[in-house]
Design brief:
This protein is an alpha+beta fold and 297 residues long. It is built from eleven helices and ten strands.
Length: 297
């Protein structure tokens, strides 16, 4: 359990605190519903521009090279993380301030939809990360709360006629998320912006603009899950199906034992690998029960 969960969570998880999904949580930060809507409207209207704006005065172009430069790299990472983890009352819609998230496995995503969100506000919209990186329009992002009030003013995010049912019941949202999760899309939950949670995503790497900064540049743009995968070598048959599903490079194949092995220090705990294992050789366990991983998010 991280310090953030201790301060903002329920049952040890910040994203299972229903208060964080209510507009009332903004009162503590002197923010109201209208200002939140204006913030989100501006962010979504200029979504693409956020990815290329300057960080600490440095252009985001060629970021990989700059990150590797000792002094510039530390400066860029410091200011990028400070922006993403910001908890200050006022937010700049031109930047991704207070937009931090965490990987969540399927069971926790279902718990969010069942217990934390208002059913009358659930929508599904196009994933802008996939659209920017691949030019593909796929409705795999689930939003709730005030986003349901402004989505009609953002037509490019609304699924086209063949996927026109974008206002969902809880059952429909759970069915959709489960479908994407079993297809290999990683579940993530996001503040948008802190302290208000309004986004449950299903995406993959390298498309996900939330996961990619951490994997490519070491910027802590997202927390690892509260869980970690653990394998049972006695059940493993060496089929390698789990290896093909892991997007974090945490699973390898041991040629001597003919079994797969999981590097838990690399695992993000998404649980995608569980869906393809036919032999009950993998489970996810709480990260805190592995001494070496306590507090390592």
């Amino acid at each position: 359990m991280c310090d953030h969960c201790l301060k903002h969570g329920t049952a040890g998880k910040w994203y299972l605190n229903a208060k964080n999904y209510s507009i009332e949580v903004m009162d503590e930060f002197n923010q109201d519903e209208d200002s939140l809507k204006e913030f989100l409207m501006e962010q979504y209207k200029t979504f693409e521009a956020m990815q290329v704006r300057k960080i600490a005065g440095f252009s985001a172009e060629g970021l990989g090279y700059k990150i590797q430069t000792p002094i510039i790299g530390r400066i860029v990472k410091h200011f990028a993380e400070r922006m993403l983890h910001s908890t200050k009352p006022k937010f700049n819609p031109k930047q991704a301030e207070g937009h931090i998230g965490q990987v969540v496995p399927l069971d926790d995503a279902i718990a969010i939809l069942e217990n934390c969100v208002d059913e009358n506000t659930i929508i599904m919209k196009y994933c802008m990360c996939r659209y920017q990186s691949r030019g593909e329009k796929e409705a795999c992002c689930i939003n709730f709360g005030v986003m349901s009030d402004i989505i009609d003013k953002l037509p490019r995010f609304i699924p086209e006629p063949e996927d026109s049912k974008y206002r969902l019941t809880k059952e429909e949202a759970i069915e959709k998320f489960t479908e994407f999760n079993k297809k290999g899309y990683i579940g993530t939950i996001w503040y948008g912006a802190f302290p208000y949670i309004n986004n449950l995503c299903a995406c993959k790497t390298p498309e996900c603009a939330g996961i990619r900064p951490r994997l490519d540049f070491g910027i802590k743009s997202i927390f690892k899950a509260e869980y970690v995968a653990q394998n049972n070598p006695d059940n493993c048959q060496g089929c390698k199906r789990c290896l093909t599903m892991c997007q974090f490079g945490a699973i390898s194949f041991n040629e001597k034992t003919k079994r797969t092995e999981i590097d838990q220090s690399v695992c993000y705990g998404c649980g995608i690998c569980l869906h393809v294992c036919r032999y009950d050789a993998i489970e996810i366990v709480p990260r805190q029960v592995i001494p070496a991983l306590v507090g390592k998010y």
